[in-house]
Specification:
Length: 224
């Protein structure tokens, strides 16, 4: 037993000695070269076998990223009017969607629009921004479609929320904004629907991320 210990000690010393002899300027011996030189092509490598030597390919024309769907209404007055009249919220009006919408609204919108949606957010009270409307402004008579459109493209002093929020999140916020509008106008509260998303609607909503859990996502949200 003891001699085995001695033998291995000698081996370790020799190995350490050999190792320390490598010159500063030369590469040391590679024990497992495939750990340094990958067998497959490097993602951004240049190889003769590819056109332009370029390993990384452009996506096929018309490719859309996962979790993203093209938005058909244009950022023009006509597009806005069209969305206002025709675009509908594909999410059912459930307690869950409303609760999530409220949480997101508080994060993204309340600083300007106020917790009640009356246009009296902190920034307005401190006179940092002007012209924030109340959601019951009769001149605007906002609809599900116009709210979504405003979030997607932004409107004058209001920025776009297309990057910070997913399609589903925007529709959740939309439900909450419409509920604030109802409250401001003194309308009766809308009753909740059962949680059934029709196939057609859910396709429009999130092509590749079906039942994503918002609470989990929230933690990673800040870096997204
Ligand atoms: C930086 C302040 C600010 C924030 C944050 C903000 N808004 Fe606005 N919002 C405005 C201003 C200012 C206007 C008026 C724009 C105009 O008509 O010139 C406006 C207008 C609107 C309108 C009316 C659009 C129309 O068609 O007339 C809606 C709906 C709206 N915002 C919803 C939201 C929602 C939902 C959020 C959160 C995702 C949000 N806003 C975040 C400042 C803000």
């Amino acid at each position: 037993m003891r001699s085995l210990f001695h033998k291995s000690l000698v081996f370790v010393i020799i190995a350490g000695f050999l190792n320390s002899c490598a010159g500063d300027r030369d590469r040391n011996y590679q024990y497992f070269p495939d750990m340094y030189r990958p067998v497959p092509y490097e993602p951004y490598g240049a190889y003769d076998i590819f056109a332009n030597q370029q390993e990384a390919k452009l996506p096929v024309d018309g490719t859309i990223p996962r979790g993203w769907m093209p938005y058909d209404y244009e950022d023009t007055p006509e597009g806005r009017a069209d969305a206002k009249a025709n675009l509908k919220n594909p999410l059912p009006y459930t307690e869950e969607n409303l609760t999530k919408g409220k949480a997101l609204y508080t994060v993204y919108c309340a600083v300007c629009h106020g917790d009640k949606g009356d246009g009296q957010g902190t920034l307005v009270e401190r006179e940092k921004i002007l012209g924030v409307p109340s959601y019951d402004d009769p001149g605007r008579s906002i609809t599900e479609g116009s709210v979504y459109h405003a979030m997607y493209y932004g409107l004058n002093n209001m920025g776009s929320y297309a990057v910070q929020t997913s399609i589903k999140e925007r529709w959740q916020i939309d439900h909450y904004v419409m509920s604030l509008k109802d409250k401001l106008e003194g309308n009766p509260e809308r009753s909740f629907q059962t949680n059934t998303v029709t196939q057609e609607n859910s396709d429009n909503l999130n092509p590749a991320e079906p039942a994503e859990d918002l609470s989990e996502k929230d933690q990673t949200q800040s870096e997204e």
